[in-house]
Amino acid sequence: MHYPQSQNAWRIYNMITIKTPATSANLGSGFDCLGIALKLYNSFQVEKYDHNFLENIDEKYNNDNNLFLRAYRLGCETIGKYDPIHVIFDCHIPISRGLGSSASFIIGGLVAASVLHNNILSEAEIYRLACSIEGHPDNIAPCLYGGLCAGMKIDEKHFLSHKLPIHKDWKYTALVPNVEVSTEEARAALPDHYPRAKVATAISNAILTSQALQEGNLSLLSASTHDIIHEPYRKKLIPNFEIVQQIVKEDTDGILLISGSGSTCLCIAKKELSTKARLKVASLPHHWQCLQLDVAYHGTEIER
Ligand code: HSE
Questions:
Q1: Is the CB of 101 under 6 A from ligand 1?
Q2: Is 214 a residue whose pLDDT tops 90?
Q3: In angstroms, what is the span from residue 5 Cα to ligand 1's centroid?
Q4: Is ligand 1 within 6 A of the CB of residue 136?
Q5: Where are the alpha helices (H) located in 146-228, listed in sequence order?
Q6: Closest by Cα among 93, 177, 186 to 136
Q7: b/e string for 264-284 if b means 16 or more Cβ within 10 A?
């Protein structure tokens, strides 16, 4: 066993690590309700401290408004006991790219409040508090519980979630352009009302998408992921979306969705994207990155 030498290393050795996965929300037709956890993580090492001390984080987030810290404060408020916190951030989920970095910070802060106070918050309480900050459950549920989840908002304070079975053969590739999309702006781009016939199509699409993911049924997935609620209005925020969609289709026969509110796009297929297709995407403007990611079945993990 390795024992750290310096006092500083000894302290880090005694900190608790919280690992939160990336998430891809909506999955085409499951707007604000479906999401899946993927193995790309933010890690937070935490301990109680004599003042709030955030390490290894961009200066612009190193302040009281930091989302992790805001969630931590809400957790402490709910518990009724506040201790300042030292956090060492090790973040790999890109910010403002539709891969659930906000959910990851929110869950991280709430779990930190709980683990530093005798695990006093239940998972259900953490889920409820996290959804109340984020406003919708589709990133929060898979980030906390892992796998494929359906979440439901009952009202501002009450949320449900359910973990859904998922076929093991799917391959997931996140295609990430170097373009930030603010969720607020991407939500503002959507209509407030939809015609009844469109709503009926959207409901059947969402049901069939979750069934297709469970069965491993590619033709059903292709038929049911033609979203009409958000993708038509958000495509224009993602440069070359249709070209990337075409490359993915020709290479894998799979589908390309907008991940959350973008700009990341998620390819779901039965085979991995070939090197040739990756190079084609990478040669487009905006420095697209291709990340082959497995499902994070366990959601948030705590290491002591
Ligand atoms: N369901 C959300 C949206 C995910 O599409 O706006 C982004 O947080």
A1: no
A2: yes
A3: 45
A4: yes
A5: 183-188, 196-215, 218-224
A6: 186
A7: bbbbbbeebbeeebbebbeee
> What confidence tier does 304 reach under pLDDT thresholds 50, 70, 90?
confident
From the CB of residue 200, how many other CB atoms can be counted at a distance below 10 Å?
Answer: 11
CA of 261 to the centre of ligand 1 (A): 5
CA of 138 to the centre of ligand 1 (A): 7
* pTM for this model (two decimals): 0.93
Find out whether the beta carbon of 183 lies less than 6 Å from any atom of ligand 1: yes
Which numbered atom of ligand 1 lies nearest the CA of 32? 1
DSSP calls for 216-260? T-HHHHHHH---SSSHHHHGGGSTTHHHHHHHHHHHHS-EEEE-T
State whether the beta carbon of 138 lies less than 6 angstroms from ligand 1.
yes
User: What atom of ligand 1 comes closest to residue 138's alpha carbon?
Assistant: 1
Q: How confident is the model at residue 3 (pLDDT cuts 50, 70, 90)?
A: very low
Q: Tens of pLDDT along 127-153? A: 999 999 999 999 999 999 999 999 999
277: which strand partners?
none
The share of the chain scoring above pLDDT 70, in percent, equals 96
Cβ pair 103, 24 in contact under 8 A: no
Q: Is 25 in the pocket of ligand 1 (CB under 6 A)?
A: yes
Q: Is the CB of 153 under 6 A from ligand 1?
A: no
What are 254-301's pLDDT values in tens digits?
A: 999 999 999 999 999 999 999 999 999 999 999 999 999 999 999 999
